[in-house]
């Protein structure tokens, strides 16, 4: 829950704590970073941290929530400048590619978190699955508007391409990785458009 100041904004201390956690968790991993490190770098007291977060797990969940909101906003904005359904799919692909090519890219925050919290019942793992379900639903809905065949398989294909690009993007040449990813997206679109009935 966001703690608010009297002026109605999010507490500066909470924002500083979360910003510090986001930066370090993404760059270095979650388990390797202790609460003391976050407190020190955020320049707050332990009491301040516990006033805003119940513990490290709560802070990790807030980190993933912020990542989720950022990705939703990024992909929504990417689609605003285009209108054709296939161009919307391409815009989502390009936005993902730009992220992979960005400085400091360390893979997918959600895949990284899932690797550290493999228990499907753990709240952090559930938060990862919720984000991934949203992403799958979003791309499947977009692909359903391209062609007349059911889009569930195409949606899963897109997600798998994206997962592979996210994993490879921080291990090898991100330019080649994103080129391969975008070629794969075009392949999905071609397959769906080729399946349209003649004259459609």
UniProtKB/TrEMBL annotation:
It comes from the Bacteria. The keyword Transcription regulation applies. Keywords: DNA-binding, Transcription, Transcription regulation. Signal peptide: none annotated. Residues 11-71 form the HTH tetR-type domain. This is TetR/AcrR family transcriptional regulator. InterPro entries: Homeodomain-like_sf, HTH_TetR, Tet_transcr_reg_TetR-rel_C_sf. PANTHER family: HTH-TYPE TRANSCRIPTIONAL REGULATOR LMRA, TRANSCRIPTIONAL REGULATORY PROTEIN. Residues 34-53 bind DNA. Coiled coil: none annotated. Pfam families: TetR_N.
